[in-house]
Design a protein that fits this description.
about 35% helix; globular; seven-stranded mixed beta sheet; about 220 residues; alpha/beta
């Protein structure tokens, strides 16, 4: 059931992802369930149309279509790595001009992607999002506080992305960077999700949970 107040159950999410990616037949997606929970916390009502930017394999867009209060979901990415049997629409684009008319979507998501976008291109990308999306932009990403965090996040990206042929090179943002990016792109940070336990106590020693952030960028 699409209920913004419902907590995402990792086993239920596993059943959705396993239909498209065999690895999830044995792997319970605790991280992804926590990520989706953080998005639901700051979600604003029902969005009839949702654009997922940098959708990768498309399985997170598929999960949002099934579990979130949305009508339709479309995923786009630079490279077509989308699973072939998704119910959501997918397409590739050039990374610069989002190929939709102005105000085509009610909301958008960018999950663990913006740190891979070259610094000089981030504002223009979000301005494109601002053009094609009427409402909020939900962002799940990372936040750094120093050089050691850069090393931690680089290692995390390698672990999470290499199995899916995803991007590894990245430049991570501080909280001040996020604030500046929002303002430069015509947004304001309208909400930030509460901290969550993405990793258990032992793994969190190496990769602290404070490295994760979820924000809602509202049109300014």
């Amino acid at each position: 059931m699409k209920n913004a107040l419902a907590k995402i159950d990792a086993v239920d999410l596993q059943a959705i992802l396993a239909r498209h990616l065999p690895m999830y037949r044995v792997k319970v997606p605790h991280y992804q369930a926590t990520m989706l929970d953080s998005l639901l916390e700051i979600w604003q009502g029902h969005h009839e149309s949702l654009l997922d930017i940098g959708g990768g394999t498309g399985v997170i867009a598929e999960a949002m279509a099934r579990l979130f209060p949305v009508g339709s979901v479309r995923a786009i990415d630079l490279v077509d790595r989308f699973c072939a049997d998704l119910s959501v629409q997918t397409s590739s684009y050039d990374g610069k001009s989002i190929p939709f008319e102005t105000a085509s979507f009610d909301a958008a998501t960018i999950n663990n992607v913006l740190h891979h976008v070259p610094i000089a291109e981030r504002t223009s990308l979000l301005c494109q999002v601002r053009r094609v999306v009427k409402g909020p932009l939900y962002i799940k990403d990372h936040v750094r506080t120093g050089r050691l965090d850069n090393l931690r996040l680089t290692a995390m990206d390698a672990i999470g992305n290499i199995p899916f042929d995803g991007q590894v090179s990245a430049n991570y943002l501080s909280q001040d960077d996020w604030q500046s990016l929002a303002e430069a792109s015509g947004y304001r940070i309208g909400a930030t999700a509460c901290p969550r336990a993405y990793r258990g106590p032992i793994h969190a020693i190496i990769f602290p949970n404070r490295l994760e952030t979820t924000m809602r960028f509202d049109p300014a």
